[in-house]
Amino acid sequence: METIISDFFNAARTGDLTFLREHIDQISDLNVRDNRGYTPLIIATYNGQLEAARLLLDAGADVNAGDYGGNTSLMGVSFKGYPEIATLLIGYGADLNLQHGNGGTALMFAAMFGRNNMVRLLLDAGADRHICENRGLTAADLAAQQGNVAAIEMLEAADVIR
């Protein structure tokens, strides 16, 4: 069984839909974690595997499962800049405002790493720009630290638009 789980993680990483489909019923818990706490869904999404993520979600993977640090799939794709996968996750009920162990959110990741298409997507989906991480910083504060003027403008305009 250990080999199947290891191979299942690898299939999620590489987007091997054939393997995933053939073995998904053999995995008793789709939210099984590897040694870093990653689930197959986290692995698939972080590696840009849209269809693998869809397959796992359709089979019942927890869209809001976090790794040992509390990082979710939505946080990972916000850091990486994968809007199609973020849209998929949001469609499956991803919590836009979950905070990882240091209080960071998906919106904060997007703003910090210059993924401004993700900032827009998350704001449009209803992400809360007022949440503070453990040091008391908001997404706009983190964008300012990085010199991300476009994100700051989007984040500041979010209240005016609503």
From TrEMBL:
Repeat region (ANK), residues: 36-68, 69-101, 102-134
First and last residue of the signal peptide: none
Pfam families, A to Z: Ank_2, Ank_4
Cited SUPFAM superfamilies: Ankyrin repeat (SSF48403)
Keywords: ANK repeat, Repeat
InterPro entries per UniProt: Ankyrin_rpt (IPR002110), Ankyrin_rpt-contain_sf (IPR036770)
Cross-referenced PANTHER family: ANKYRIN REPEAT DOMAIN-CONTAINING PROTEIN 39, ANKYRIN REPEAT DOMAIN-CONTAINING PROTEIN 39-RELATED
This protein's name: Ankyrin repeat domain-containing protein
Biological source species: Chitinophaga agri
Native organism taxonomy: Bacteria, Pseudomonadati, Bacteroidota, Chitinophagia, Chitinophagales
